[in-house]
């Protein structure tokens, strides 16, 4: 489908004074005519105010429903969730911090992280050396 375009030159005259020339390029819509008064969707992209009450927001997980006929799940008490869930956002040590510590005294989880991050750093270094050659 070929898209046709129209170039037009318009001059705006305000109070008997020419303000300037404006070059405009418009593409034909699939139906043949472009919408009048359309500004490129800028007004439709603006965030809209929430219509949900604060009570509904605090008791349900809004937007978590993935089923066509389902409903948003309710927020449960903290005791209803597994313990590991609350540790997902805990800060984990960086590679530089792990290198400063004694490897033999690291806990198992930190040791696994150290090996993974160290391997990743070595691979990146080797790839950069190969790229230079």
UniProtKB/TrEMBL annotation:
The keyword Ligase does not apply. Its main location: mitochondrion. It is found in: Mitochondrion. Coiled coil: none annotated. GO terms for molecular function: structural constituent of ribosome. It holds the Pfam family Ribosomal_L37. Belongs to the mitochondrion-specific ribosomal protein mL54 family. PANTHER family: 39S RIBOSOMAL PROTEIN L54, MITOCHONDRIAL, LARGE RIBOSOMAL SUBUNIT PROTEIN ML54. This is Large ribosomal subunit protein mL54. It comes from Trema orientale.
